[in-house]
Amino acid sequence: MVLNVLLVLLMAVWDGKTFPLPIDTLHSYDTYAKERKALTSCVLAKEIQLNVPTTTGKRAVGSPNDPDYAIFGTVDYSISMDDKNLQPFDRIALEVLPTINGTGIVNLNLQLNNATPAQVGAHLINLIPNKWNHIVYELGELPREQVKSIRIYTDIKGRQPVTGVDSVQYSIRNLRLEQTGYQAKERGWEPEDNMVSYSMSGYLTNGHKTAVVNRTHIGKPYSIIDIDKGKAIHSGKVASSAGSIGTLGLIDFSALTQQGSYRIEVDSILSEPFPIGNDIFQPSAWRVLNYIFCQRCGCEVRGIHDACHSDLYADYSGRSFSYGGGWHDAGDLSQQTLQTADVAFALLEASERYKHINKDLSERLKEEACWGLKFILQCRLGDGYHASSLGLLHWTDNKSGTFDDIHTVRTQNHAFDNFLYAAYEAFACRVLGEQHPLYPSLFSAAKEDFEYAATQYDEKGILPYAHIMEHTYNTPPSLFTATASWAATQLYILTHETSYAQKAAQYISYTLQCQETKGKKPELKMKAASLLYTLSINQENNSFP
Fold first, then answer.
1. Are residues 79 and 11 in the same domain?
2. What is the pLDDT of residue 105?
3. 102 and 73, same structural domain?
4. Contact (CB, 8 A) for 258 and 182
C-alpha cells in the first residue's frame, strides 16, 4: 500500500514532465538534527549581512590548464576565535534569510578553521530563498581545540540569463555555539544503539532480507510488524555476525515473503515503514530520474535554472560546435560527453526494464535518455573526434558572440570512447526502434564510431589519453578489450553483419587471458569467445542480451 500510494503521489507531482519533484526532507538527517535541543549555547554574533552580486561584469578566469573552471570571486565574513578551545560545544547553529527576486539556487558555506591548516571543517548549506532557514552544523570529531576563526562565505558564480537575480542578500542572525550532548557515530559499520539499519527501498518478495543493529542487541528478540494488520507476523532473535567490518547484530527475515508494508521492532526500537514486494524500486527510479532531469543543461528547469550555456563551444577544423546540452555534472556545471552517454544508456536499460511494468515510467526514462542522445550526436565533430569535456563552475550570459563565450571545450579522438559511443548508439537504436526520429542518425553514428575506434586500435593499439581531465584515462587493457568486444556485439545484434561478431571474438581474447585461473574449476572459466562465435553464426538471434 505504501509503495502504491507513493507512486501515485510521485506521478501526480510530475505533472506533464515539466516540473522537478519537491524535495522530501521529512526523514532527512538534517531534520532529525534540528529536533535535538541545545543544553547550553554561546552567541557569537547577533546579526550579519552579506550582500552578494551574482556577477562582476568581468570574465571569470581559472587556472591555466582549466581556465573556465572559475568563479567571479567570494564574499565572506569571519569571526576571530583567538585560538579558543571549542571542544565543549558539539554544533554551530544559525538562522539565514536569503533574499532574491527571481529564480536561483542559493547556498552558503560555513567553515571552522583550526590552528593546524589541514584541520579545516566546511559545510555547504543549501537554502530555501526568501524564508528564514534554521541551520545546524554538527562538529562531531572535527578538531576544535585551538580555533582560529569561523568563516561564513559564498562564491560568486554568475547571473542566470533570463529570470536570474542581480544580487542576493543574506541576513544571518543568532550565530551561536551549542552543546546538545549528542555525539553521532562516525566510524565503522555498526549502527548506533537506538537505530535499525535496513533497506529503505524495501525488500524483494523472494529475495534475501536482512537488517543490522548494534551488537548490544545480539540475542534479543525482534519482531516484524505488519502495518496494515497492526501486529507482528514474524519474529526471532538477533544473531551475531562477525567479519572484516566488525561484529554486528543481524536480523534475517528472509522467510517472510508476503507482500505488504512493515516495520522492524527490537528492544522497543522501531524502524520506519518499508515495503516487501515484487517491484519495490519504482520510487527510487522516479527520484533518480528527477535528479537527472534537474541537471539538464541548455534547458529550463523550472524553479532551478533557465535555459543555459548555449555559448559554450568546441573548436575543431576551423569551426565552432555548440556544447550546450546534455546534463551538468553532479557537483558543478561541468560537462563530460562520455558520462552523458553512460547515463543515457542506463536510462534506456531502465526503460526496457519497466516497459511491461509501468508504461509511464518507461516512456519518461526513454524521453530523458533522448535528451542525452541528442547531445552525443551534437558532439560528433568528424574524423572520430568528439567534443569531450569542460570544467565549469559559473553561469554565462547564454548569448553567442559576447565577451564571456567559452571556447575551451576539450576534443578527443580515442578508440575507447568511440567503442562506447558506438555501443550506446547501437543499443539506443534497438530500444527506440526504426520509426523514432533519432534512429537514422544513431544508426549511422554507431557504425561510423565503431569504424573509427576499430581502425585506430587495430593500427596503433591503445593510445595514451590526450587529457588527464577525462574520466576514462586510466582504463586498463583488459577493460579496454572487453569494451571493444561488447561494442562489436551490440553492432552485430543491431545489423546481423558477421564481421562484427568476428571482431567481438577477436577483441575478447586478451580479456580472457587476463582471467585468474589458479584454483578455478575449468568449467567456471569464461567462455565468451566461443559464445560470441556461436552468436556470429546464429543470425536469427535478435534478442536483448
1. no
2. 83
3. yes
4. no
